[in-house]
Amino acid sequence: MANSKSTEKKTGFREYMKGVRTEMKKVVWPTRKELGSYTLVVIVFCAIMALGFWAIDSGCAIALQKLLGITISV
User: Fold this and answer.
1) In this structure, what are the phi and psi dihedrals at residue 54, rounded to the nearest 5 degrees?
2) What is the Cβ-side half-sphere exposure of residue 23, based on CA atoms within 13 angstroms?
3) Are 61 and 72 in contact (CB under 8 A)?
């Protein structure tokens, strides 16, 4: 039975970094305008999700207060 590790080609850190550099050259970077619009979309989406979670949390708190007859202090 042959040792599978001995048959694999071992690459060093230098070869790894060379491969990283090669792959980074293939990346298509967004323009400044695209980056600004993507950032705006992310901020708006996060704000909408935060409002949604707040609404669900508030609704659940109100429902529990009504159902159990308790008060929840902030």
Assistant:
1) -60, -45
2) 6
3) yes
